[in-house]
Design a protein that fits this description.
Blueprint lengths: L18 H28 L9 E8 L2 H10 L6 H7 L4 E7 L2 H12 L5 E7 L12 E11 L2 E13 H15 L6 H22 L12
Parallel strand pairs: 2-5
Antiparallel strand pairs: 1-2, 3-4, 4-5
């Protein structure tokens, strides 16, 4: 588990997140995200050697907005304070790594785990074990060391690894089922599950054309 430095509980009442406090609060999370982003870029260029194609299509990054942090804390039954955000949220900083093949995902995650200064806090493999609705992705939360004038502290960054087809499906499912008001959601959800299964088959077919030897799918 990663180390957390918390503020005195007596001060919690005055830690309601004003805009100024929010931007101060998220800075080390943003720093941790940038550090991990740089690590992934290095792996992108070196994972398979200079003669092989790169494993990633693109890397996206985000920091949770103030309103999203407050909403998630309230959903958890917690007051929307900076201390609670630090204690109960591990996805304030996030990266989404879009790869070409599932093998690229496992190669990247395995390499990250070998970096001794990173802490693996939690991981969920929704590729080997997809969600019932068809969602596939590999989620991992990494504790990243951030050095300040008064010491070092680990800050969590959530990484979602997806192939291009996984990302396409997840984006469309979110837009169709959650961003639109529909009366036929159950029918659409069943159809989307079929599309998810079809994309798995397509990924396996595309793997035949990879230039990396020994590529296999789970």
């Amino acid at each position: 588990m990663y180390t957390i430095i918390i503020t005195d509980k007596k001060e919690e009442s005055r830690l309601q997140m004003t805009n100024e406090q929010y931007y101060t609060f998220i800075q080390p999370y943003s720093d941790a995200k940038d550090i991990l982003y740089a690590r992934l870029n290095v792996l992108e260029h070196n994972l398979y050697g200079k003669t092989a194609t790169h494993p990633t299509h693109n890397i996206q990054e985000r920091i949770k907005k103030k309103e999203s942090i407050e909403k998630k804390l309230l959903k958890k039954g917690k007051e929307p304070t900076m201390m609670n955000a630090k204690d109960y949220l591990q996805d304030i900083a996030g990266l989404r790594v879009i790869c070409y093949f599932t093998e690229d995902i496992y190669s990247l995650t395995d390499t990250l785990k070998f970096q001794s200064d990173l802490i693996i806090i939690r991981e969920c493999d929704y590729i080997k074990h997809p969600k019932p609705n068809g969602y596939r992705s590999y989620h991992i939360i990494v504790g990243v060391p951030v050095y300040c004038m008064d010491g070092m502290e680990y800050f969590p960054v959530e990484i979602q690894f997806r192939t291009m087809s996984m990302d396409f499906w997840a984006s469309m499912e979110h837009r169709i089922l959650y961003k639109m008001k529909r009366d036929d959601k159950e029918q659409i959800a069943a159809e989307l599950k079929e599309y998810a299964d079809a994309l798995v088959t397509m990924e396996k077919q595309f793997a035949k054309y990879t230039d990396k030897q020994g590529l296999s799918f789970t």
